[in-house]
Amino acid sequence: MAFITISGYPCSGKSTVAQKVKADLERRLQNTEYHGPSFRVIVASDESLSIPRSAYDDSRSEKPARGALFTAVQRHMNQDTILIVDAPNYIKGFRYQMYCAARESKLRVCTLYTVATPDVCRSRNEARPESERYAPETLQNMIARYEEPSSMVRWDSPLFTITWTDETLPMDQIWDAVTHGNVKPPNAGTQAVVKAPTSALQALEQTTTAMVSAITAQQATLDGMGGKVTLQLPNSEVKVQVMLPSRVVTLPELQRMKRQFVTVHKKAITLGTTEKGVVNWSEESIARKFATYLEENIRP
């Protein structure tokens, strides 16, 4: 249903904001004045996944930590859940990756940016129990590498900025974003490629060969006269119309056209295609495509 990303410096108040947002959303969903569908509100965080602060000490340990978080995020993305991601989320590429996954799941999205000064973050980090602290050099490194969200980019918008001094959250606007915001279609680049059936290559070869045979047989009855003719494919119920020129199209010509057509379409079969709802590898569809190809490429 919706996906909320919380981003900010370490110790900037992300977890506090996440819990406040969760509590407020649950309250609104349980309100007697709310008549919409019921939703679960889930917080996915480093704590819920037992990811230690030390995972951010170096890139070697941080990469699998982000991978574990992303896997958990994907697992919880569905139409009956409002998912809040409480993690550093300080790299814009990772926020974009989660945004694309949310679009694939047809979820509404928004980003909460928790703002605190580096000094406030350091002070809060020092006040934590030792097991919950970031190493000072790790904290400084994450602050230095932080890539600030921007309302100008689609994966961070709509963006709500919350400072460490704010006592209240813009919950009306957040509620509106997660319940009435636009649901963007999946990114074309992330959509699964539609593969041709295993019999497609055989059907391509057999159908085009049958077409060549049918045209050769039909021309024998035309005495060089062209025009639109209806071909009955050998050993098949498929009939297809093709416009022939006012001359005899020789067998070598037809064979050459067949090879060109097959070569072009073999690539689509082996690599797949993203033409949703258009790809059809049936005998009739191949015959019609080949007829169109011949009409466009045979010289008069």
Automatic annotation (TrEMBL):
Signal peptide feature range: none
Origin superkingdom: Eukaryota
InterPro entries, per the entry: KTI12/PSTK, P-loop_NTPase
GO molecular-function terms, A-Z: ATP binding
Keywords from the UniProt entry: ATP-binding, Nucleotide-binding
Record-linked Gene3D superfamilies: P-loop containing nucleotide triphosphate hydrolases
UniProt keyword annotation of Nucleotide-binding present: yes
Family: Belongs to the KTI12 family.
Full protein name: Chromatin associated protein KTI12
Phylogenetic placement of the source organism: Eukaryota, Fungi, Dikarya, Basidiomycota, Agaricomycotina
